[in-house]
Amino acid sequence: MTSGDAAFPERLDVFCNLRGVRHFVGRLAQRGRSLLFEYDRIFLASGIELSPFKLPLRPGVFEDKDRTFGGLFGLFNDSLPDGWGLLLLDRVLRSKGMRLEDISPFRRLAVVGDGGMGALEYIGGDKRSDGASRVPLLLDGLAEEARKILAEEDSPLETVNELLRLGGSSGGARPKILADVSADGSAILPAGMGGPGFAPWLIKFHAREEARDQGLVEYIYSVMARDAGVEMPETRLFPSATTDGFFGVARFDRENGQKVHAHTACGLLHAEHRHASLDYENLIKLTKVLTGDVREVEKMVRLMVFNAKGGNRDDHARNFSFLLDAQNHWKMAPAYDLTPSAGFSGEHSAMVNGKGRDITDADLAAAASVADVSGAMVREAVQRTEEALSRFEQLKRELGQALPGAGRAYLLV
Fold it and tell me: What is the pTM of this model?
Protein backbone atom coordinates (compact mmCIF):
# COMPACT_ATOMS: atom_id res chain seq x y z
CA MET A 1 0.00 0.00 0.00
CA THR A 2 1.09 3.54 -0.61
CA SER A 3 0.53 6.43 1.76
CA GLY A 4 -2.23 7.64 -0.52
CA ASP A 5 -4.32 4.47 -0.15
CA ALA A 6 -7.96 5.29 0.53
CA ALA A 7 -7.86 3.32 3.77
CA PHE A 8 -5.02 5.48 5.07
CA PRO A 9 -5.53 9.11 4.05
CA GLU A 10 -2.87 11.71 4.60
CA ARG A 11 -5.09 13.69 6.98
CA LEU A 12 -7.03 12.88 10.15
CA ASP A 13 -9.54 15.10 11.89
CA VAL A 14 -8.90 15.11 15.64
CA PHE A 15 -11.81 15.42 18.07
CA CYS A 16 -11.94 15.47 21.86
CA ASN A 17 -15.11 14.02 23.36
CA LEU A 18 -15.00 15.70 26.78
CA ARG A 19 -17.70 14.29 29.05
CA GLY A 20 -20.18 14.06 26.21
CA VAL A 21 -19.28 17.37 24.54
CA ARG A 22 -17.45 16.70 21.28
CA HIS A 23 -14.93 19.35 20.22
CA PHE A 24 -13.19 19.52 16.86
CA VAL A 25 -9.58 20.00 17.95
CA GLY A 26 -7.71 20.27 14.67
CA ARG A 27 -6.11 18.33 11.83
CA LEU A 28 -3.22 15.91 11.80
CA ALA A 29 -1.47 15.33 8.48
CA GLN A 30 1.33 13.16 7.18
CA ARG A 31 3.67 14.62 4.58
CA GLY A 32 6.40 12.12 3.77
CA ARG A 33 8.17 11.45 7.07
CA SER A 34 6.76 14.59 8.66
CA LEU A 35 3.67 14.60 10.89
CA LEU A 36 2.03 18.01 11.13
CA PHE A 37 -0.74 19.29 13.38
CA GLU A 38 -2.75 22.52 13.44
CA TYR A 39 -5.44 23.55 15.95
CA ASP A 40 -8.84 24.57 14.68
CA ARG A 41 -9.42 28.29 15.26
CA ILE A 42 -12.65 27.67 17.18
CA PHE A 43 -10.92 25.24 19.51
CA LEU A 44 -8.15 27.79 20.09
CA ALA A 45 -10.80 30.09 21.53
CA SER A 46 -12.03 27.39 23.94
CA GLY A 47 -9.04 27.76 26.24
CA ILE A 48 -8.90 23.98 26.79
CA GLU A 49 -5.24 23.00 27.15
CA LEU A 50 -5.05 19.32 26.17
CA SER A 51 -1.25 19.18 26.21
CA PRO A 52 0.13 22.41 27.68
CA PHE A 53 3.87 21.77 27.35
CA LYS A 54 4.38 20.30 23.88
CA LEU A 55 1.19 21.46 22.11
CA PRO A 56 0.16 24.74 23.75
CA LEU A 57 -2.89 26.52 22.41
CA ARG A 58 -1.62 28.80 19.67
CA PRO A 59 -2.17 29.19 15.93
CA GLY A 60 0.21 27.75 13.38
CA VAL A 61 1.48 24.37 12.28
CA PHE A 62 3.27 22.16 14.81
CA GLU A 63 5.94 19.59 13.95
CA ASP A 64 7.98 17.55 16.42
CA LYS A 65 11.37 17.58 14.76
CA ASP A 66 12.90 15.62 17.64
CA ARG A 67 10.72 12.68 16.52
CA THR A 68 10.52 11.23 20.03
CA PHE A 69 7.53 9.12 18.98
CA GLY A 70 8.30 8.85 15.29
CA GLY A 71 7.22 12.45 14.76
CA LEU A 72 3.88 12.04 16.54
CA PHE A 73 3.22 14.48 19.38
CA GLY A 74 2.84 12.91 22.81
CA LEU A 75 -0.81 13.98 23.00
CA PHE A 76 -1.60 11.65 20.11
CA ASN A 77 0.97 9.00 20.97
CA ASP A 78 -0.95 8.40 24.20
CA SER A 79 -3.87 7.19 22.03
CA LEU A 80 -1.76 4.38 20.58
CA PRO A 81 -1.62 0.99 22.26
CA ASP A 82 1.58 -0.43 23.64
CA GLY A 83 2.88 -3.97 23.86
CA TRP A 84 -0.12 -6.28 23.50
CA GLY A 85 -2.35 -3.83 21.64
CA LEU A 86 0.46 -2.87 19.29
CA LEU A 87 1.06 -6.55 18.49
CA LEU A 88 -2.61 -7.00 17.52
CA LEU A 89 -2.83 -3.70 15.62
CA ASP A 90 0.25 -4.38 13.51
CA ARG A 91 -0.88 -7.93 12.76
CA VAL A 92 -4.15 -6.57 11.39
CA LEU A 93 -2.33 -3.94 9.33
CA ARG A 94 0.01 -6.57 7.90
CA SER A 95 -3.05 -8.62 6.93
CA LYS A 96 -4.01 -5.66 4.71
CA GLY A 97 -0.79 -6.14 2.74
CA MET A 98 1.40 -3.66 4.60
CA ARG A 99 5.02 -4.31 5.46
CA LEU A 100 5.99 -3.75 9.09
CA GLU A 101 8.51 -1.08 8.11
CA ASP A 102 5.73 0.88 6.37
CA ILE A 103 3.44 0.99 9.40
CA SER A 104 3.76 4.53 10.72
CA PRO A 105 2.28 6.00 13.92
CA PHE A 106 -0.10 7.97 11.69
CA ARG A 107 -1.47 4.81 10.13
CA ARG A 108 -1.93 3.21 13.52
CA LEU A 109 -3.96 6.22 14.66
CA ALA A 110 -6.15 5.88 11.59
CA VAL A 111 -7.09 2.38 12.77
CA VAL A 112 -7.57 3.42 16.41
CA GLY A 113 -10.23 5.90 15.24
CA ASP A 114 -12.68 6.71 18.02
CA GLY A 115 -11.94 3.55 20.01
CA GLY A 116 -8.85 4.67 21.90
CA MET A 117 -8.30 5.24 25.60
CA GLY A 118 -9.05 8.72 26.89
CA ALA A 119 -11.21 11.25 25.06
CA LEU A 120 -9.41 11.80 21.75
CA GLU A 121 -10.96 10.51 18.53
CA TYR A 122 -9.49 10.32 15.02
CA ILE A 123 -11.81 10.48 12.03
CA GLY A 124 -10.93 9.84 8.40
CA GLY A 125 -9.10 6.54 8.60
CA ASP A 126 -9.94 2.89 8.11
CA LYS A 127 -12.94 2.59 10.43
CA ARG A 128 -12.89 -0.74 12.21
CA SER A 129 -15.98 -2.87 11.96
CA ASP A 130 -17.63 -2.87 15.35
CA GLY A 131 -19.16 -6.31 15.44
CA ALA A 132 -19.83 -6.01 19.16
CA SER A 133 -22.89 -7.62 20.65
CA ARG A 134 -24.39 -8.22 24.08
CA VAL A 135 -23.11 -11.80 24.13
CA PRO A 136 -21.36 -12.33 27.51
CA LEU A 137 -17.59 -12.60 27.38
CA LEU A 138 -15.94 -15.87 28.50
CA LEU A 139 -12.69 -14.81 30.13
CA ASP A 140 -10.91 -18.16 30.13
CA GLY A 141 -11.60 -18.62 26.41
CA LEU A 142 -10.32 -15.16 25.56
CA ALA A 143 -7.25 -15.70 27.75
CA GLU A 144 -6.46 -18.89 25.85
CA GLU A 145 -6.75 -17.11 22.50
CA ALA A 146 -4.43 -14.40 23.80
CA ARG A 147 -1.95 -17.06 24.95
CA LYS A 148 -1.88 -18.57 21.45
CA ILE A 149 -1.13 -15.21 19.88
CA LEU A 150 1.66 -14.50 22.37
CA ALA A 151 3.09 -17.98 21.66
CA GLU A 152 2.95 -17.16 17.93
CA GLU A 153 0.60 -20.07 17.29
CA ASP A 154 -1.71 -19.84 14.31
CA SER A 155 -4.79 -17.77 15.09
CA PRO A 156 -7.60 -16.87 12.66
CA LEU A 157 -7.64 -13.24 11.62
CA GLU A 158 -11.20 -13.06 13.00
CA THR A 159 -9.83 -13.89 16.46
CA VAL A 160 -7.11 -11.24 16.19
CA ASN A 161 -9.71 -8.69 15.10
CA GLU A 162 -11.97 -9.63 18.00
CA LEU A 163 -9.18 -9.22 20.57
CA LEU A 164 -8.17 -5.93 18.93
CA ARG A 165 -11.75 -4.70 19.19
CA LEU A 166 -12.06 -5.85 22.80
CA GLY A 167 -8.87 -4.31 24.10
CA GLY A 168 -6.35 -3.44 21.45
CA SER A 169 -6.41 0.29 22.24
CA SER A 170 -5.15 -0.17 25.81
CA GLY A 171 -1.55 0.20 26.91
CA GLY A 172 0.80 -2.20 28.64
CA ALA A 173 2.49 -5.43 27.65
CA ARG A 174 0.04 -7.95 29.13
CA PRO A 175 -3.03 -9.15 27.20
CA LYS A 176 -6.20 -7.42 28.33
CA ILE A 177 -9.73 -6.53 27.32
CA LEU A 178 -12.05 -3.59 27.88
CA ALA A 179 -15.47 -4.64 29.11
CA ASP A 180 -18.69 -3.44 30.70
CA VAL A 181 -19.30 -5.21 34.01
CA SER A 182 -22.52 -5.35 35.99
CA ALA A 183 -22.53 -3.97 39.53
CA ASP A 184 -22.48 -7.44 41.09
CA GLY A 185 -19.88 -8.74 38.65
CA SER A 186 -22.18 -11.46 37.32
CA ALA A 187 -22.25 -10.20 33.72
CA ILE A 188 -19.31 -9.16 31.53
CA LEU A 189 -20.07 -7.67 28.11
CA PRO A 190 -17.96 -6.01 25.39
CA ALA A 191 -17.19 -2.35 26.08
CA GLY A 192 -20.08 -0.09 25.18
CA MET A 193 -22.65 -2.88 25.27
CA GLY A 194 -23.57 -2.77 28.96
CA GLY A 195 -25.98 0.10 29.30
CA PRO A 196 -27.55 1.09 32.65
CA GLY A 197 -26.29 -0.89 35.61
CA PHE A 198 -22.91 -1.60 33.98
CA ALA A 199 -19.56 0.16 34.37
CA PRO A 200 -16.44 0.15 32.16
CA TRP A 201 -13.55 -2.04 33.32
CA LEU A 202 -10.16 -3.23 32.10
CA ILE A 203 -9.46 -6.93 32.72
CA LYS A 204 -5.95 -8.37 32.41
CA PHE A 205 -4.90 -11.85 31.33
CA HIS A 206 -1.56 -13.51 32.01
CA ALA A 207 1.55 -12.89 29.95
CA ARG A 208 3.78 -15.78 28.93
CA GLU A 209 5.59 -17.54 31.77
CA GLU A 210 3.61 -15.72 34.46
CA ALA A 211 2.50 -17.72 37.48
CA ARG A 212 -1.15 -18.71 37.82
CA ASP A 213 -1.46 -16.41 40.83
CA GLN A 214 -0.37 -13.26 38.95
CA GLY A 215 -3.89 -11.84 38.94
CA LEU A 216 -4.32 -12.56 42.63
CA VAL A 217 -0.99 -10.91 43.44
CA GLU A 218 -1.90 -7.78 41.46
CA TYR A 219 -5.23 -7.63 43.25
CA ILE A 220 -3.53 -7.90 46.64
CA TYR A 221 -1.16 -5.07 45.72
CA SER A 222 -4.12 -2.91 44.78
CA VAL A 223 -5.62 -3.58 48.21
CA MET A 224 -2.33 -2.77 49.96
CA ALA A 225 -1.85 0.39 47.89
CA ARG A 226 -5.27 1.64 48.94
CA ASP A 227 -4.45 0.84 52.58
CA ALA A 228 -1.22 2.81 52.13
CA GLY A 229 -3.16 5.91 51.09
CA VAL A 230 -2.49 5.64 47.36
CA GLU A 231 -5.48 6.76 45.29
CA MET A 232 -6.78 3.68 43.47
CA PRO A 233 -9.70 2.84 41.21
CA GLU A 234 -12.01 0.04 42.29
CA THR A 235 -10.39 -3.35 41.65
CA ARG A 236 -11.71 -6.90 41.42
CA LEU A 237 -10.50 -10.43 40.98
CA PHE A 238 -12.53 -12.14 38.28
CA PRO A 239 -12.93 -15.93 38.42
CA SER A 240 -10.98 -18.32 36.23
CA ALA A 241 -10.93 -22.09 35.80
CA THR A 242 -7.24 -22.08 34.81
CA THR A 243 -5.69 -19.46 37.10
CA ASP A 244 -6.26 -17.93 40.53
CA GLY A 245 -8.25 -15.18 38.85
CA PHE A 246 -8.00 -12.31 36.39
CA PHE A 247 -7.22 -8.87 37.77
CA GLY A 248 -9.64 -6.12 36.82
CA VAL A 249 -9.63 -2.37 37.39
CA ALA A 250 -12.35 0.23 36.85
CA ARG A 251 -11.44 2.59 34.01
CA PHE A 252 -10.54 6.10 35.15
CA ASP A 253 -10.85 7.50 31.61
CA ARG A 254 -14.62 7.03 31.78
CA GLU A 255 -17.02 8.84 34.11
CA ASN A 256 -20.78 8.32 34.16
CA GLY A 257 -20.55 6.71 30.73
CA GLN A 258 -18.64 9.64 29.25
CA LYS A 259 -15.04 10.04 28.11
CA VAL A 260 -12.40 11.80 30.19
CA HIS A 261 -9.20 13.27 28.74
CA ALA A 262 -6.12 11.47 30.08
CA HIS A 263 -2.46 12.27 29.42
CA THR A 264 0.59 10.32 30.57
CA ALA A 265 3.78 11.88 31.90
CA CYS A 266 5.41 10.23 28.89
CA GLY A 267 3.15 12.11 26.48
CA LEU A 268 3.12 15.39 28.38
CA LEU A 269 6.91 15.72 28.46
CA HIS A 270 7.91 13.62 25.43
CA ALA A 271 9.75 11.30 27.80
CA GLU A 272 10.28 7.93 26.11
CA HIS A 273 9.04 5.14 28.38
CA ARG A 274 11.13 2.30 26.97
CA HIS A 275 14.17 3.53 28.86
CA ALA A 276 14.74 5.51 32.04
CA SER A 277 13.80 9.08 31.13
CA LEU A 278 12.22 10.63 34.24
CA ASP A 279 13.09 10.46 37.93
CA TYR A 280 10.66 11.03 40.79
CA GLU A 281 11.88 14.58 41.26
CA ASN A 282 10.77 15.26 37.66
CA LEU A 283 7.41 13.61 38.31
CA ILE A 284 6.84 15.55 41.53
CA LYS A 285 7.75 18.85 39.87
CA LEU A 286 5.51 18.00 36.91
CA THR A 287 2.60 17.36 39.27
CA LYS A 288 3.18 20.66 41.06
CA VAL A 289 3.40 22.72 37.86
CA LEU A 290 0.53 20.96 36.07
CA THR A 291 -1.98 20.81 38.93
CA GLY A 292 -0.89 23.67 41.20
CA ASP A 293 -2.36 21.63 44.06
CA VAL A 294 -0.33 20.37 47.02
CA ARG A 295 -2.84 17.55 47.50
CA GLU A 296 -2.03 16.20 44.06
CA VAL A 297 1.69 16.52 44.76
CA GLU A 298 1.25 14.45 47.92
CA LYS A 299 -0.53 11.78 45.85
CA MET A 300 2.59 11.50 43.70
CA VAL A 301 4.78 11.30 46.79
CA ARG A 302 2.66 8.47 48.23
CA LEU A 303 2.90 6.63 44.93
CA MET A 304 6.68 7.07 44.91
CA VAL A 305 6.91 5.65 48.42
CA PHE A 306 4.71 2.67 47.58
CA ASN A 307 6.65 1.83 44.41
CA ALA A 308 9.98 2.12 46.21
CA LYS A 309 8.92 0.05 49.21
CA GLY A 310 6.88 -2.44 47.17
CA GLY A 311 9.57 -3.19 44.60
CA ASN A 312 7.72 -1.87 41.55
CA ARG A 313 10.69 -0.98 39.37
CA ASP A 314 8.58 -0.74 36.22
CA ASP A 315 7.79 2.88 37.15
CA HIS A 316 8.37 4.33 33.69
CA ALA A 317 6.91 7.52 32.28
CA ARG A 318 3.81 5.89 30.80
CA ASN A 319 2.78 4.47 34.17
CA PHE A 320 1.85 7.91 35.55
CA SER A 321 -1.18 9.72 34.17
CA PHE A 322 -3.15 12.92 34.67
CA LEU A 323 -6.82 13.72 34.04
CA LEU A 324 -8.54 16.91 32.93
CA ASP A 325 -11.54 17.48 35.20
CA ALA A 326 -14.89 19.08 34.35
CA GLN A 327 -13.48 22.55 35.19
CA ASN A 328 -10.47 21.94 32.89
CA HIS A 329 -8.12 21.58 35.84
CA TRP A 330 -5.52 18.82 35.94
CA LYS A 331 -5.31 16.20 38.65
CA MET A 332 -3.43 12.94 39.07
CA ALA A 333 -5.10 9.85 37.70
CA PRO A 334 -5.52 6.93 40.11
CA ALA A 335 -2.50 4.64 40.32
CA TYR A 336 -2.05 1.53 38.17
CA ASP A 337 0.49 -1.24 37.41
CA LEU A 338 1.92 -1.52 40.94
CA THR A 339 3.19 -5.09 41.26
CA PRO A 340 6.86 -5.87 41.94
CA SER A 341 8.97 -6.06 38.80
CA ALA A 342 12.61 -6.34 37.80
CA GLY A 343 12.70 -2.98 36.03
CA PHE A 344 15.82 -1.95 34.15
CA SER A 345 18.61 -4.33 35.21
CA GLY A 346 17.15 -4.48 38.70
CA GLU A 347 16.83 -0.71 39.05
CA HIS A 348 13.81 1.58 39.12
CA SER A 349 13.02 3.29 35.85
CA ALA A 350 12.33 6.44 37.87
CA MET A 351 15.23 7.12 40.22
CA VAL A 352 14.87 8.58 43.70
CA ASN A 353 17.50 11.10 44.76
CA GLY A 354 19.77 9.81 42.00
CA LYS A 355 19.42 6.16 43.03
CA GLY A 356 17.75 3.30 41.17
CA ARG A 357 18.11 0.77 43.96
CA ASP A 358 18.77 0.59 47.73
CA ILE A 359 16.49 3.60 48.20
CA THR A 360 16.34 4.85 51.79
CA ASP A 361 13.75 6.89 53.65
CA ALA A 362 16.17 9.81 53.48
CA ASP A 363 16.22 9.49 49.68
CA LEU A 364 12.42 9.58 49.59
CA ALA A 365 12.36 12.69 51.77
CA ALA A 366 14.98 14.37 49.59
CA ALA A 367 12.97 13.70 46.42
CA ALA A 368 9.76 15.01 48.00
CA SER A 369 11.49 18.17 49.17
CA VAL A 370 11.76 19.49 45.59
CA ALA A 371 8.09 20.47 45.95
CA ASP A 372 8.39 21.50 49.60
CA VAL A 373 6.62 18.38 50.87
CA SER A 374 7.39 18.06 54.56
CA GLY A 375 9.50 15.31 56.05
CA ALA A 376 6.62 14.56 58.41
CA MET A 377 4.32 13.76 55.48
CA VAL A 378 6.94 11.43 53.96
CA ARG A 379 7.48 9.65 57.29
CA GLU A 380 3.71 9.12 57.63
CA ALA A 381 3.56 7.74 54.07
CA VAL A 382 6.49 5.41 54.74
CA GLN A 383 4.97 4.06 57.95
CA ARG A 384 1.55 3.56 56.40
CA THR A 385 3.06 1.86 53.35
CA GLU A 386 5.23 -0.49 55.38
CA GLU A 387 2.23 -1.48 57.50
CA ALA A 388 0.15 -2.15 54.38
CA LEU A 389 2.88 -4.20 52.67
CA SER A 390 3.42 -6.31 55.81
CA ARG A 391 -0.05 -7.80 55.25
CA PHE A 392 0.82 -9.45 51.93
CA GLU A 393 1.13 -13.05 53.14
CA GLN A 394 -1.95 -12.72 55.34
CA LEU A 395 -4.02 -11.34 52.46
CA LYS A 396 -2.77 -14.02 50.09
CA ARG A 397 -3.79 -16.76 52.51
CA GLU A 398 -7.19 -15.23 53.19
CA LEU A 399 -8.02 -14.47 49.58
CA GLY A 400 -6.58 -17.75 48.34
CA GLN A 401 -8.99 -19.59 50.63
CA ALA A 402 -11.92 -17.48 49.45
CA LEU A 403 -11.40 -17.54 45.70
CA PRO A 404 -14.73 -16.98 43.92
CA GLY A 405 -16.84 -19.69 42.43
CA ALA A 406 -17.74 -19.90 38.76
CA GLY A 407 -19.68 -16.96 37.38
CA ARG A 408 -19.00 -14.58 40.27
CA ALA A 409 -16.45 -11.84 40.80
CA TYR A 410 -14.69 -11.10 44.04
CA LEU A 411 -15.56 -7.52 44.99
CA LEU A 412 -13.14 -5.30 46.83
CA VAL A 413 -14.47 -4.49 50.30
Answer: 0.93
